[in-house]
Design a protein that fits this description.
single chain; 246 residues; alpha+beta; Alpha-Beta Plaits; 3-stranded antiparallel sheet; disordered N terminus
Length: 246
């Protein structure tokens, strides 16, 4: 009985398809176009900003014969580094652990033809946000002194604490460029440009990064490490669709 009903339904569907296929083009219209109407353009806005925040990625790396020795040595050095940071104006909330590891250090024994453990390495890395950008050089120096030969400073990044004003300026520039493009296209096409019907925003903030690594701290006093924040570009793009007035 079930097979009979399936056969009847199949015949009905077949007849319906044949009937639609026989209709004249003048009576039936199928639109397969996925393109949206209007004029679609992209506008770019770029603003030069002066960084006011410095972020250091720094830490300690210690290697000893045992885990306990390596961890103790690293902890003592890291405590000195943290004290140096906070005593020089870096808030505790602006210091965040990024990476911590304890790894075996091995070497290949040619006589035994196998790897042997020669020690253990402890690495503890943090990021420190320096809000007084003029103190970045002196803070690098005190950190290097506090951590001694165990100090590792991987990178220094510059950013803007509150970029909203720069985004607003870039947004206005991008919208003006999009409007100019749309007006030009409308004039070339011989149509009248209407109001925006769609707006999408994309933000790009390329960071400026300079790497700094301390392998050894000189015994004699050295000049303060020079740090130059330079400039950074804040860019923003807008995709805008304008209606065409008919």
């Amino acid at each position: 009985m079930k097979k009979k009903w399936l056969l009847i339904i199949g015949l009905i569907l077949t007849l319906a398809i044949v009937s639609l296929a026989g209709c004249s083009p003048g009576n039936q219209e199928v639109n397969f176009s996925s393109q949206q109407e209007g004029i679609w353009v992209t506008g770019q806005g770029k603003v030069i900003a002066i960084p006011d925040i410095t972020t250091l990625r720094l830490g300690i790396e210690a290697q000893e014969a045992s885990v306990a020795e390596a961890q103790s040595k690293a902890a003592q050095a890291m405590n000195r580094v943290m004290t140096a940071l906070t005593e020089n104006g870096v808030a505790e909330k602006d210091i965040q652990t990024q990476y911590f590891s304890i790894r075996r250090v091995t070497k290949w024994d040619r006589e035994k033809e196998e790897e042997t453990i020669v020690g253990y390495k402890v690495t503890n890395m943090v990021t420190a946000k320096i809000r007084d950008i003029d103190k970045a050089g002196s803070i690098i120096d005190v950190v290097a002194e506090a951590g001694g030969d165990l100090t590792r400073i991987d990178s220094i990044d510059f950013s803007v604490d509150d970029p909203s004003a720069y985004y607003e300026e870039a947004r206005q520039e991008a919208m003006a460029e999009a409007r100019n493009k749309a007006e030009q296209l409308a004039e070339m096409a011989g149509v009248t440009l209407g109001k925006p019907t769609y707006i999408s925003e994309g933000i790009q903030v390329p960071p400026i990064t300079r790497g700094v690594v301390y392998e050894e701290v000189p015994v004699a006093p050295a000049p303060e490490t020079p740090i130059s924040p330079g400039e950074m570009e804040i860019s923003l793009s807008l995709q805008v669709a304008y209606a065409i007035v008919k």
